[in-house]
Amino acid sequence: MEKRAVMPVEKILLDLVAIPTVSAQSNEPLIAYAQTFFAPNVWALRRYPYRDSTGTLKVNLVARTRRPPRTRPALALVCHTDTVPYEASWREAVKPVLRGGRVYGRGSCDVKGFLACILSTVSALDAAPLTAPLEVALTAEEEIGCVGARRLAAAKAVRAPRLIVGEPTGLTPVYAGKGYGLAEIVVRGREAHSAFPTAGRSAIFDAARVLASIERAAKRLQRPRHAAFDPPHATINVGLIRGGAAKNIIPGECRLTVEWRPVPGEPPDRALRLIEDELNRLRCRVPALEAEIQPLRLDPPFESAKHTELRDLLRRLSGHPPSTVSFGTEAAHVRPSDGEAVVFGPGDMTTAHRTGEHVPVAQLRACVRHLWAALAHFCLR
Ligand SMILES: [Zn+2]
């Protein structure tokens, strides 16, 4: 396949970072910029626009090569377009710089670096020799809960059986990830003057009982084990606790925010069921206790265990053994039921989501080479 002259990938990345796309903002300007890389004679584009809860326009974009017609795409490249917010004092956040072989700026690593690699690849693509179409899906609002990816999944907009989902993995193919669950527990008591405790009921004392129940549920969650993860089982965290009105008032309410990360093979709501089960036992022992659990998020884990062709290919190309991650990705939502998703991309996740975020240009270039090789492997045979 002949590659036409294209913009250097780091130049594309500098442009992408200079278009701010914090999740709350519209990503439409960035989608409009990305669209200019898809030659109309090679690519068919479809926009999936929607308004978020504040009325802001968000756009998912799906692009598919026009050739060969009436054929299922063999490979899809999936990438989110939004970023986490940045500190106002970080001048390079949306005025990116290339320094010492790295591009610095918000999103350079998570995950506009991979997006630049996609755009470099698609702009040089000639559709004539393709034996199966290539698909590209660009999504909105990943950082606030994979909102765009969920919408694309609901619309069945991505059809390829193999997906490379961009996230900074240091070019390590990631074939499995933990899921994510979130819930709020409200414990209700009865306020009273603290000098007369029996006139009320302390929601904070009851919350302590609830916390002990959650710890018991966490213990039960240590089975089943999944050796590919560290730690090798689902985890629970109570990250927030708020309760009470004043030091001399028996607290009338206490709220606990609980999250959990299920391993592949267990349902995303298993921790929720175990906590409910423990709460029911607690209510039997302490009938006056009032506690309600409200689930807020249930993202499934993902694992491409049966099919390994893409994982094996990316392993050979990158030289990195396949791995797992303990955070959620879009792969859990857009993954095809009959295929394989691998999370992959340049940059190190530990430099993402903080001031000074950056990506090495050498990894960007290597990623472009790997995308070409994957494209040749799946769409040219
Ligand atoms: Zn990301």
What does it look like?
- With 381 residues, the chain is α+β, with helices and mostly antiparallel strands.
- It has two domains: 9-177 and 301-379, Zn peptidases (Aminopeptidase, 3-Layer(aba) Sandwich); 180-299, Alpha-Beta Plaits.
- It is 27% helix and 26% strand.
- The protein contains nine helices and 18 strands.
- It has a six-stranded mixed sheet, sandwiched between helices.
- The structure holds zinc ion (ZN).
Domain count:
2
Mean pLDDT: 95
Q: Please state the structural category.
A: alpha+beta
Q: What is the molecular shape?
A: elongated
List the ligand species: zinc ion
Tally of DSSP helical segments:
9
Sheet having the most strands: 6 strands, mixed
Instruction: Estimate what percentage of residues fall within beta strands.
Output: 25-35%
Write down the CATH class of the largest domain. Answer: Alpha Beta
CATH superfamily of the largest domain: Zn peptidases
**CATH hierarchy: architecture of the largest domain:** 3-Layer(aba) Sandwich
